[in-house]
Amino acid sequence: MLRIADTRTGHLVEVPAAPRRLLRSCVHLPDTGTGPDTGTGLGPVHLRVPLIGDVLARTAELNGLQVVTVLTTPELTHEQARALDRVMAVLGIHPPAVVGAHRPDAALGGPADLHVTAAGTTPVDAGSGALIEVGQVATAPPTEGAPAVPDLAALPGLPDATMPEAADPLAVRLLLLGRPYATPVTVTGPALAEARRTLRDWRRSVADWAQQPSRPIPTDLLRQSHTALSENLDVPAVLTLLAVVAERPDVPPGAKFETFAHLDRVLGLDLARDIGHQYSP
């Protein structure tokens, strides 16, 4: 069962309503004038809205549901459409079934069960179904001595050559997933650097644990993580759980590996990427 807080009522609702096993999800890209101008007109919130739609779909699939997702967009130039495609690809966002749909019900094969939109926007085609609003994203101006924040919308293929670490856009994914989806996020250089360090450490740990005999995921960890995801998509709680599991001496390395690999099906952080690589101490 997947339950989401409907912004219209504030109540948790089951999506899709039982006994149907197909979730129809409509993700609404904000107008390109919503975020700060980045040259393409796409701002950070244009990354977060489809990202939350992606995690919702992954969570639904983890719950045994079938999912069809459409992404409605304002009128985009060819350059904007290409930039959006690249952004979604490098952030690990699974491609929607249809992009740019102006009649989402027809593209979905029926009324949407769920609408994902940016806070402060009201899609004209978000009639039926639960509505969840995704908090806005801001980038902090650089301060003296602190790492600069790269242009998030320019990440696909154009990382700052003076900042090679910024070339891992999944650090942006981790940072945006680290706050409740309805909470506004301010991206800072230090926060992004910390996300990169966390990804590096977790990937190295997963590679180490993969060399040990596999062990089943402890029942309590499986229950806690699935409950957090299924009850209003509490991804920050899952990330906290992984940080705790990584340090628990009572959880065998093989069980840690299986836990991280299983939950990465939802997180989409490519945590098993470094398996087979050896690191110098």
Concise structural overview:
This protein has 281 residues and is of the alpha/beta class.
Largest sheet: 5 strands, parallel
Measured between the Cα atoms of the first and last residue, the distance is: 44 Å
Q: Strand percentage, roughly?
A: 5-15%
State the oligomer.
single chain
Rounded radius of gyration (Å): 19 Å
Counting helices, strands and paired strands, the structural category is alpha/beta
Structure notes:
- With 281 residues, this protein is of the alpha/beta class.
- The protein contains 8 helices and 9 strands.
- The chain has helices spanning 45-62, 78-90, 104-108, 170-177, 189-209, 219-230, 235-247, 253-267, and strands spanning 3-5, 12-14, 22-28, 66-72, 98-99, 114-118, 130-134, 137-139, 185-187.
- A 5-stranded parallel β-sheet has the order 5-4-3-6-7. A two-stranded antiparallel ribbon has the order 1-2.
- The longest helix is centred in the last third of the chain and has 21 residues, at 189-209.
- The N and C termini lie far apart (44 Å).
- The relative contact order is 0.14.
- The model is unreliable at 34-39 and 156-166 (pLDDT under 50).
Descriptive keywords:
5-stranded parallel beta sheet, globular, single chain, alpha/beta, 9 strands, two-stranded antiparallel ribbon, 281 residues, 8 helices
Secondary-structure blueprint:
Blueprint: E1 3-5, E2 12-14, E3 22-28, H1 45-62, E4 66-72, H2 78-90, E5 98-99, H3 104-108, E6 114-118, E7 130-134, E8 137-139, H4 170-177, E9 185-187, H5 189-209, H6 219-230, H7 235-247, H8 253-267
Parallel strand pairs: 3-4, 3-6, 4-5, 6-7, 8-9
Antiparallel strand pairs: 1-2
